[in-house]
Amino acid sequence: MDVLARRAYLDPIEILRVIRRPERRETQPDGRIRMWGYSASLGGYLRVVVLSDGETVHNAFLDEEYG
Questions:
Q1: Cβ proximity of 25 and 35 under 8 Å
Q2: 59 with 51: CB under 8 angstroms?
Q3: pTM (predicted TM-score)
Q4: Opening angle at CA 28, ends 30 and 24, nearest 5
Q5: How far apart are CA 50 and CA 67, in angstroms?
Q6: Residue ranges per domain, the chain?
Q7: At a CB cut-off of 8 Å and minimum separation 6, what does 26 contact?
Q8: For labeling, which of 20, 47, 61, 66 is most exposed (least CB within 10 Å)?
Q9: Cβ-contact 14, 28 below 8 angstroms
């Protein structure tokens, strides 16, 4: 996951957990899928954006506006 190189504070296990069991899921007009899940280790909601295949991580970050 290239996103981990840009955001070293992210845990790949947390990203996979959000992908497997998101609290909320939205499909963007371009086919990418946004998913949110609470991360206790980050103390907030993690937004993970995957490509239309539902697996390839495009982006992941702490979403300070969600919740």
A1: yes
A2: no
A3: 0.89
A4: 155
A5: 20
A6: 3-62
A7: 33, 34, 35
A8: 20
A9: no
Using CA atoms, how far apart are residues 35 and 18, in angstroms rounded to an integer? Answer: 7
Which residues contact residue 9 at a Cβ distance below 8 angstroms, ignoring those fewer than 6 apart? Answer: 42, 62
Residue 58: which of 38, 32, 37, 35 has the closest Cα? 32
Residue 4 has pLDDT above 80, yes or no: no
Structure tokens at 34: 């946004």
Per residue in 6-42, pLDDT (tens digit) is 788 899 999 999 999 999 999 999 999 999 999 998 8
